[in-house]
Amino acid sequence: MSKLKIAIQKSGRLSEKSIALLEECGLKFPNGGGKLITESSNFPVEILFLRDDDIPQYVEQNVAHIGIIGENVFLESEKKITIVEKLNFSACRLSLAVPKETDYEGLTFFNNKKVATSYPNILGNYFRENGINATVEVISGSVEIAPGIGLADGICDIVSSGSTLLSNGLKEVETVLKSQAVLVSNQNLDEEIQSVLNKLLFRIRSVQKARENKYILLNTPNNQLEKIIGILPGMNSPTILPLAKEGWSSLHSVISEEKFWDIIDELKEAGAEGILVVPIEKMIL
Ligand SMILES: Nc1ncnc2c1ncn2[C@@H]1O[C@H](COP(=O)(O)OP(=O)(O)OP(=O)(O)O)[C@@H](O)[C@H]1O
Ligand SMILES: O=P(O)(O)OC[C@H]1O[C@H](OP(=O)(O)OP(=O)(O)O)[C@H](O)[C@@H]1O
Ligand SMILES: [Mg+2]
Fold first, then answer.
1. Which of 18, 202, 203, 205 could bond 68 through an S-S bridge, CB–CB 3.0 to 4.6 Å?
2. Ligand 2 centroid distance, CA of 156 (Å)
3. Required cofactors, per record (predicted)?
């Protein structure tokens, strides 16, 4: 069987979570020891460990069939590759920032200014679409230092917690792009490789679904059953089992974790007891 070649970041913000995702999909592979290419012992894949910026190019050239990168790198690369799945990790944004004492009143501030970034394509397009005439100064890292050393009037870089901006005396003024990790694919995969990718995608979606949902168990007096079912959102047919305790039942269902935290107080008020929320390992739909 042909092997699907997957490129992931060698070391950096995406590495650990990319490896964790593949492992949660059941793929076993040696990891570590500085090897830059490895293969799985139980699934037809080869894993290539690369610099993230190089991944779009390799995927376009079919050297790797698929890869995991940030949407920011996908867009900046302008390569002919396709996002096949958003992966819900490494959320961040690409933002414009200026020295915190700047009197900033809107995007026109950047007219005739110099902005340092590692994302000249994304930023160039953004300025063009917004009719701003600024000079883009390309630097490959430590962008936040640029205004402080007189290299630029502002920067455009990745922001997550905002602490790097803060510790460099900058303030965020515009969001240019919201990003997360994505799975990208070559646009002309041969049939056999595409079918391995489909199998992997099925597993990735099962892992993602499981991460979003939790299995909930609770005990309720029978006279409150209907009310509790009404509180639990989107619950079609919960499992209801009688408890040894007269007049009580145990109710089991699957619920999105996010919604659970919104309704926990309501559930308790309605008489639910012994509430257990359990992680789901895989969810096959
Ligand atoms: N602070 C952050 N929080 C969340 N996600 C981030 C953060 N910084 C970067 N990312 C995301 O992770 C990706 C990789 O970031 P990282 O800083 O490891 O890249 P890099 O330094 O370019 O790595 P490489 O050495 O592989 O070129 C970014 O392209 C972005 O999508
Ligand atoms: O808003 P924050 O939470 O502070 O995160 C933002 C910082 O994180 C990234 O750099 P990273 O720490 O990955 O270092 P790098 O520049 O060496 O890639 C990014 O380039 C920013 O500098
Ligand atoms: Mg990089």
1. 18
2. 12
3. Mg(2+)
